[in-house]
Amino acid sequence: MTNSRRPLGFWSATALVVGSMIGSGTFLLPATLAPYGAATLIGWGITLCGALLLAVTFAQLAKRWPQTGGPYVFARNAFGELPGFLVAWSYWISMWCAIAAIAVAFAGSIGAIFPTLTATPVSAATCGLVALWLCADVNLIGVREAGRLQLLTTVLKVVPLLLFGLVALWFVDTGRYVPFNPSGESLGSVAAATVALTLWAMIGLEAATVPAESVDDAPRTVARATVAGTAIAGIATVLACTTVLGLLPADVLANSGAPMADAAAALWGPTAGKLLAVVMAISCVGALNGWTLLSAQLPMAAARDGVLPRAFARTNKRGAPAFGVIVSCLLATVLVICNYNRSLVDLFKFSVLLSTAATLLPYVAGAAAWLWRGSGVPSRIAAAGALAFSLYAIGGIGAEALAWGLGLIVAGLPIYFWLRRAVNSVN
Questions:
Q1: Cα separation values, 114 from 108, 175, 221, 277, 347, Å
Q2: What mean pLDDT is predicted for residues 290-295?
């Protein structure tokens, strides 16, 4: 594929990073973080530093191996086929879990605008699934169209988000940050728990590495987009989430399906709340679109190498990996339906932790890959920091999400050995 035909340039690649990171997390995380109060700043500080170290590491990996597949390619090239499969499988699981979580967040934003549409668990789940499948349709049209939608939705959410954070900062009630740690847990426990939650808002920093062969001048563009996108999304997210904690009581935040919209409504009236809910809905659509694109691109790369079933490598007439899009969205749909009876906040938290748990293996493998195969002392120091952060984050995920994540990863092993057996029998 020549550069002139590649559908994603620097801005589209950066939008893919920012759009994948700024989705549901920025707008719903204040509800899940409310019990920890201002102590969440410890988690945010650790997470932002860790995310930047990971971004630098993935930028270096993208320069070394500018191939479609991102974390899967890095693990396969550094450690071999089986580790590559485990990373591909784990990362793919994290993607459709993320799609489910973002669909739930979309329902929360729509509920803030039209409460009757999400009045029951069934209607809320239906609302989220409609958005999910609309984004699937866009991705089936082609990568270029998905990239254009990503750029548009990123602009429409980043600008209002930054404005909200900067303006609302002047209305913060510092008394809301007292006591500093209302949870009663040790600061070490709070840090571990909040890192696991805030890391969700940083997941997606590697997004530009996944469709690398669709990016102009991939070695240079992907590296720049990864670091720039992570910095933009990280600053906007920390600012907005921390501000919201200082605007509403913790008990109100903890039960809110759209905490940022509720904060805007409390400050400037119902109209402001509805406008911010619209921004949140746009944000969720952008994140759904980005993760749907990635959830098909990564298994396509693995299928080309024979690591996943060949069906994932099939493309439609527009060049879109249709099978991957449909299967990923179907699995996300099943996750939403199986848990629809939970509250929006509980369902969101469960999907977030499950997606984060499945993402940490690719992060660990990516950092280890550069430590093993990389060059340059500064970049390898960054990789060591990224590896330490990823291992630390695993400890805060919680037993339920880790058990689910481990079970889903192990469930993929029969597929790998079945494919290897089929290849060996042919040879």
A1: 10, 32, 41, 10, 20
A2: 86
The amino acid present at 342, given as its one-letter code, is: R
Strand partners, 8: 215
Under 8 Å between Cβ of 260 and 244: yes
Record the tokens describing residue 225, joined without a space. Answer: 């987009």
Rounded to whole angstroms, how far apart are CA atoms 47 and 153? 25
Q: Can you give the pLDDT at residue 29?
A: 80
**What pLDDT, in 10s, does the model give residues 21-34?**
876 666 778 888 88
C-alpha dihedral (19, 230, 54, 98), degrees to nearest 10: -20
pLDDT at 3 over 60: no
CB neighbours of residue 25 within 10 Å: 28
Cβ atoms of 161 and 236 within 8 Å: the answer is yes
Task: Tell me the per-residue pLDDT of 297-316, one tens digit each, with 9 for 90 and over.
Answer: 889 988 888 888 889 998 88
What is the pLDDT at residue 362?
A: 92
What average pLDDT is seen over the chain? 85
- DSSP lists the bridge partners of residue 215 as 8
Task: Tell me the pTM.
Answer: 0.85
Q: What is the Cα–Cα distance from 34 to 247, expressed in whole angstroms?
A: 11
Taking Cα atoms as reference points, which of 90, 155, 390, 151 lies closest to residue 293? 151
Residue reference for tokens 């449909």: 326
